[in-house]
Amino acid sequence: MKPSSLFSATFIIAGSVIFGCAHAEAPSRLDKIKESQTISLGYPSASLPFAYLDNQQKPTGYSVEICQHIVQHIKASLNLPTFNIRYVPVTSATRIPLLRNGTIDLECGNTTNTAERQKLVSSAPATFVAKTVLTARKDAGVDVNNPASFSGKSITSMAGGLALSVVQQISAEKKLNISALPSDNAASSFLLVKTGRAAAMSNDDGLTYALVATSGDPQDYVIGTKALLAAPYGIVEPKDDPRFKHEVDAAVLDLIKSKQIYALYDKWFTSPIPPSGINLKFPMSDVFASRSGASFRFW
């Protein structure tokens, strides 16, 4: 049974308020988009099932489909007969700079809405809440639910991501001398664990279950059950563009209110997905319904 309160108003967290028509004449990316009849979407290329490349090397995934719904909403709102989507690959380190400098108009991946990031960008209403957990090989001699077992060892995660910074914070607070190893993407982090170059990976549970399920040897890994933090994901928008934000947020709220978001979730998390048809069997968790806000530390 899906939590009835999953996408309640509490998920429209700070920075996600829809603005009214008082700002209708302010300069906006909508003007550029209307003139060029093109919108640029940033996406991570290896963040299955949120955003990744399919067998035809085309962007696909849960967050990509949400962005495609936003695109259709904007196309109708601007009354454009034709509308082009330009896909731009991004990493955790480049996604915000590329949004801020205008290279992309939205980032469609697995970015957590935090108070710190709200100083630079805005976020649409949350469409996923992740639990950041540790994952290790079963033969690594560590306890993924006990930070003390990683004293003097290494933990990897994506550069510029919240999952890496929380490891650094825990290590400093508990004086564990953990070496934090940054990587380009989730797949690179998992490879460091697979080859023994890192004792564990710090990553969000949706990404983690996908990586383990597609590893070829899922029985070789153990995924933590104790969350480092809870992290709400939202499509990332430019800051201080109320007209554009109004359209983007309205499209996301339409998905939520119409319950289409449930079908999208089932498609990407509880059904076989491309390219190999693996089913993540990852139902909506309690943390989806019970956590809101920028982030919530557990450890």
TrEMBL record:
Which InterPro entries does this entry report, sorted A to Z? Bact_solute-bind_prot3, Solute-binding_3/MltF_N
Cross-referenced Pfam families: SBP_bac_3
SMART domains, sorted: PBPb
Which key words are in the record?
Signal, Transport
Point out the signal peptide segment: 1-24
Q: Which GO terms describe its cellular component?
A: extracellular region; outer membrane-bounded periplasmic space
Domain Solute-binding protein family 3/N-terminal, chain residue ranges per copy? 38-272
GO biological processes:
amino acid transport
Question: Which family, according to UniProt?
Answer: Belongs to the bacterial solute-binding protein 3 family.
Q: What is this protein called?
A: Amino acid ABC transporter substrate-binding protein, PAAT family
